[in-house]
Design a protein that fits this description.
Length: 137
């Protein structure tokens, strides 16, 4: 299983990487531009990501725009909704407008609010059907 962690905050990236590493390969990106490039390259390499955790507020390209571009890449590749990457939007904001945009404009799979806690992250990933154990050490 492959994960892509996208966040402009280095501590947040390190935490997410540490939490997901027991379950597969974890790549990181610091902004939406790097996210879209890594996502596209993973498909070209035939090794797509199972899960993308995507911070909303980032410089250059924000998470909302990156999500829309990810979904466009999948559409261009003919990837059906049943095979698309799971995308968890991550934000320090518990904002109704951001939540609306993530789900309805970008077709996010899930949304969690920082600070990230191991149990809640792994429980959310497991709910998406990915093989992680929320009680993993």
């Amino acid at each position: 299983m492959r994960f892509l962690v996208v966040d402009d905050d280095s501590e947040a990236r390190l935490l997410m990487r540490r939490l997901l590493r027991p379950f597969g390969e974890v790549d990181v990106a610091v902004d939406g531009d790097e996210c879209v490039a890594a996502f596209s390259q993973a498909h070209k390499d035939g090794e797509p990501y199972s899960l993308v955790t995507l911070d909303i507020l980032m410089p250059h390209m924000d998470g909302q725009q990156a999500l829309r571009e990810i979904r466009e890449i999948e559409k261009e590749l003919g990837i059906g909704s049943d095979r698309r990457a799971k995308v968890i939007m991550v934000s320090g904001l518990d904002d109704a407008e951001e939540l609306h945009d993530a789900f309805f404009l970008g077709e996010a799979t899930s949304y969690i609010v920082k600070p990230i806690h191991k149990e809640s992250l792994l429980r959310e990933v497991a709910k998406l059907g990915l093989p992680v154990r929320p009680d993993a050490p």
